[in-house]
Structures are given as structure tokens and as C-alpha cells.
Amino acid sequence: MHASLPVQRRLEVVATSLADVRAAVEGGADRLELAGSHTAQGATTPSLGFMATSRRLAPRVGLVAMIRPRLGPFVYALDEVEQMEMDIAAARSAGLEGVMFGAVTDQQTLDTKVMERLLLAAAGLRVCVNMAFDRCRDPFEALRWLIQDGRVERVLTAGGAATALAGQGRIGELLERAAGGVTIMPGTGVDADSLPELLQAVPAIAEVHVSAGARSSSAGGGVDAEVVARLRRQLDQPLAATVPAGP
Predict the structure, then answer these.
(1) Is the pTM here over 0.90, yes or no?
(2) Looking at the domain assignment, is residue 3 inside a domain?
(3) In the chain, how many domains are there?
(4) How far is it, in rounded angstroms, from Cα 136 to Cα 138?
(5) Closest-CA residue to 150 (of 182, 177, 179)
(6) Which residues of the chain carry a pLDDT beneath 70?
(7) Which of 73, 104, 180, 219 has CA atoms 20 to 30 A from the CA of 144?
(8) DSSP 215
(9) At a CB cut-off of 8 Å and minimum separation 6, what does 54 contact?
(10) CATH number of the domain within which 189 lies
């Protein structure tokens, strides 16, 4: 079975400040992932104040909160899970549409017990599984559980590789296996230079997640509206322009 081509592609941008929110919206992002911080090791949970103010600044753009109490392994202690449940409640109270989280066991499998608790806390919100998915030894088994459970809308993944472009083969396999059951959203290392090649390689991609690739090239630069607009234009190219020619 081959994944169908998307009608329109969506752009998700990571924002860690109100300036990021304004720039991402100006550039044409469809959805923002709000994070308290974002480094090469990933993102952490944003504050309630940041979430609520972002909602006011961007009333017509989708907003999701990263729910991750700390950097490091996605293996969580009981008190950390309780913290995550409270952070999900905070995102709901701030008026956000969704949340992003994930949990794995020491055996590198999806921690379904923790996921059950977090999914229950997130009832009624749109849920995306974060890069914890790429820490699963068998991503296809994890995907199977998520689809059967039915409460997760999207999965963020680099195909288990250092970047989404390097993981393009696995991403294509996941798209075929998902078959519409969940949306597979490539992320990590996506920028205006790599995005066209990624879309050429995997034309069924419907959404992309951009973090550092949406930021100014200057040291410590925030989200750049012009960079986001360039990504937006690339995603809006007619599908025929991104699908490799046949033999």
C-alpha cells in the first residue's frame, strides 16, 4: 500500500518566545509548538504565562505545548508523570488545541502505562507523540499501538536518524504503515535547504516540523519570518513540482 499524496502541506514551527510566535505567524506557519527552551537535545515544557499570552497573540494559528519536564531520556518517574499531567491541564486552561509528549521504558519500548495516563489527562486535546518515538527499538510496533489506541493524531520522527533527510527511507515506510491512521510528521534538521530534497524523496509528507531551521542564522537568533515564509513557499509548491519524474 502506498501513502496518498497530501492535498495541502502544513508547517509547524517551534517557538520559545513571544517574538518567535509573532515571526512564525507572520511567515505563514500553520501551527506552533510552544516550548520553554529548545536545544540540540530537544524542547521542554513552556510556562503557563507563555502559553496563555501566545494564545492571545495568535488566535487563528494552531498551538500545541511540548510536555517534557526535563531533557534527557524519555523514561519518567512517577512524580514526573504527575508533573506532566498538571502541565497538560495548564495547556488546556491556556486555550491550546493540543499537546506533545511521549514516554519509553528502559527496554526501549513505548511505555504504554505512562502513555495511558497522559492520554487520559489530554482527553479532548489533539495529541502528538514527540521524539520519544525515535527511541523505540521497534518503531513499527509503537506505531501499531498508537493507531490501535486511536487517541494520537500525529507522530514526530526523524525516522530514527540524526536528521529527517537521513531518515527519509524509514519515514516513507512509516507513512505507508500508518495509512492515514496517524499523521507522520518529519522533524529534526529540516530547513529551507533540505526540505525540497525531503519532499522529492517522500512526496506523501503532509506536515513538517521545523525548529532551528526556522531561525535566523545569527548567533542566538530567534524565529525569522522571512525564513518561515521561504519554507511556506516550498511547501506550497504544486505537488507535481516535488514528485520525482517517472522513468
Answers:
(1) yes
(2) no
(3) 1
(4) 5
(5) 182
(6) 1-7, 219, 239-247
(7) 73
(8) B
(9) 15, 18, 21, 32, 34, 63, 94
(10) 3.20.20.380
